[in-house]
């Protein structure tokens, strides 16, 4: 798990960062789950996700003098192909999965977090966010984009309202 979840990120940055340093510009985005340094229910999974968040923060410090920004971004309840398959639904009828898990109604497509990352990349002041642990819903609040299904899911508010 550590090799797939952390080492792969380190190796990607190892090859990308020198190019960005040479150009004196760049954005490294680490994708994680949830924001913060809390236990995620399994030691190795928790270590992997916290490791990726810390990697973004450490790279932000190391790369700042070279004009390179590094952040970690977390999607909310991601309506990925794997989750659609898990619930036995397709994108066309994804709401049917609410019969198994009502929280799935608050899910977001992978496009939502991707739009957030695109907004970050287009932001001329992205360096102000360097080292931060960000969320798709927070980026939506900042940049005003919506998901491809014309919704603006906000997992942060939903989780807070529902006590998790």
Q: Overview of this structure, please?
A:
This protein is mainly α and about 160 residues long. It has one domain (about 1-160): Rossmann fold (3-Layer(aba) Sandwich). Helices cover about 50% and strands about 10% of the residues. It is built from six helices and three strands, in the order αβαβααβαα. The chain has helices at about 1-25, 45-65, 80-85, 110-120, 135-145, 155-160; strands at about 25-30, 70-75, 135. The protein has a three-stranded parallel β-sheet, with helices on both faces. Helix 1 (about 1-25) runs parallel beside helix 2 and helix 4 crosses helix 5 (about 135-145). The radius of gyration is 17 Å and the shape is globular. It starts with a helix and ends with a helix. The mean pLDDT is about 95.
The rough form would be described as: globular
> What CATH architecture would you give?
3-Layer(aba) Sandwich
Output the strand order for the largest sheet. Answer: 1-2-3
Question: Treating each run of at least 4 consecutive H or I residues as one helix, how many helices?
Answer: 6
Low-pLDDT segments, ≥5 res: none
How many domains, as an integer? 1
Task: Jot down its keywords.
globular, 164 residues, mainly alpha, Rossmann fold, single chain
Give the SSE map.
Blueprint: H1 2-23, E1 26-31, H2 43-63, E2 68-74, H3 81-87, H4 110-122, E3 133-135, H5 136-143, H6 155-161
Parallel strand pairs: 1-2, 2-3
Quick summary of this structure?
The chain has 164 residues and is mostly helical.
């Amino acid at each position: 798990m550590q090799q797939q979840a952390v080492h792969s990120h380190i190796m990607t940055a190892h090859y990308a960062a020198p190019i960005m340093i040479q150009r004196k510009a760049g954005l490294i985005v680490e994708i994680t789950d949830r924001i913060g340094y809390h236990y995620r229910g399994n030691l190795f999974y928790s270590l992997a996700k916290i490791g990726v968040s810390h990697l973004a923060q450490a790279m932000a410090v190391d790369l700042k003098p070279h004009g390179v920004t590094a952040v970690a971004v977390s999607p909310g309840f991601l309506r990925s192909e794997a989750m659609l398959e898990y619930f036995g639904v397709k994108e066309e009828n994804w709401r049917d999965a609410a019969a198994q898990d009502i929280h799935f109604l608050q899910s977001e497509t992978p496009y939502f977090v991707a739009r957030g990352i695109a907004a970050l990349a287009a932001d001329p002041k992205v360096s102000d966010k360097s080292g931060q642990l960000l969320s798709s819903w927070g980026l939506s609040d900042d940049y005003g984009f919506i998901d491809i299904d014309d919704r603006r899911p906000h997992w942060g508010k939903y989780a807070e309202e529902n006590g998790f």
